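Shipment paperwork, digital attachment
Item: protein structure file
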Amino acid sequence: MKRSATKVSTGVAMLAVAAGVLSVGAPASADSGGGCRRASQNTAVSVCISVRSGTWNPLWADFYVDGTSQGESRTKTYINVSCSNGAFYGHFAGNWDISGTHSPQWSYSKPCSSGYGYTHTVFYNSSGNFIYSADSPNQYW
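Attachment content:
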């Protein structure tokens, strides 16, 4: 009985290893990175970027506000893209008055076949004075 249990567990382990090997090899054009990054240790704001899978599908930018400890009231959001051929694109995504915990989502089609993009958000107080800016992690494709 002990011998058959060993055979079963060895077989399961071999299947797990084979499945891991098959999923490791991603194509060079696969998307990676992205996600959210906290603006700083002194804020409760995270700036994010993500992408639908596939090289030409759009980037999605947004941010989360868990608190307005520095008087964050308004924003300007941009989706910046740096292409592997050296081209740079700064896309104005929109203005937003902070009234909840999640901004709208903005999208931007990738202007090149390989490169990276990130969300850049500038925060202002209710008087329109600059407080700080923050970037998401890079989204690569």
